[in-house]
Amino acid sequence: MTDKIRVEVAYARPDRQWLLTVDLPQGGTALEAVKASGILADCPELSAETLKLGVFGKSVKPDAALRPQDRVEIYRPLLADPKEVRRQRAEAGKKMKKGV
């Protein structure tokens, strides 16, 4: 049995994507994987203290333990609140129906 696990770290911006493979000790965390990937140096907009992370689409805390072959995803902040956008579309649709 090996004492290392291999995981991926994924991050995407509109202009570029990263998918980096890192080896961590057993019990390594999501934040450790991000730091080991070196992506924080490549992307100055990322801060280790404020990262929103997930594993295969499920939100996790930075101290979440990883398993072999996990993919740690770094999430960007939302540009718009989805609930507000839906509300605005619904309002626009009501206005269009009244005008027809």
- What is the percent of helical residues? 25-40%
Please identify the structural class as seen in this structure: alpha+beta
Q: What is the architecture at the second tier of CATH? A: Roll
Number of domains: 1
The low-confidence runs, each spanning 5 or more residues with pLDDT under 50, are: none
**Strand order in the largest sheet:** 2-1-5-3-4
In CATH terms, what is the fold-level topology?
Answer: Ubiquitin-like (UB roll)
Strand content: 25-35%
* N-C termini distance: 70 Å
What is the CATH top level name?
Answer: Alpha Beta
Encode the helix/strand succession as letters: EEHHEEEH
Find the count of extended strands (DSSP E, 2+ residues): 5
At the fourth CATH level, what is the homologous superfamily? Beta-grasp domain
The main sheet comes to: 5 strands, mixed
Layout of helices and strands:
Layout (H helix, E strand, L loop, with lengths): L3 E10 L2 E10 L4 H8 L1 H4 L9 E4 L2 E3 L10 E5 L6 H18 L1
Parallel strand pairs: 1-5
Antiparallel strand pairs: 1-2, 3-4, 3-5
Report on this structure.
By secondary structure, the chain is an alpha+beta fold. It has a single domain, classed as Ubiquitin-like (UB roll) (Roll), CATH 3.10.20.30. 30% of the residues lie in helices and 32% in strands. The protein has helices spanning 30-37, 39-42, 82-99; strands at 4-13, 16-25, 52-55, 58-60, 71-75. Strands 2-1-5-3-4 form a five-stranded mixed β-sheet, with helices on one face. Strand 3 (52-55) and strand 4 (58-60) form a beta hairpin. The longest helix has 18 residues, at 82-99.
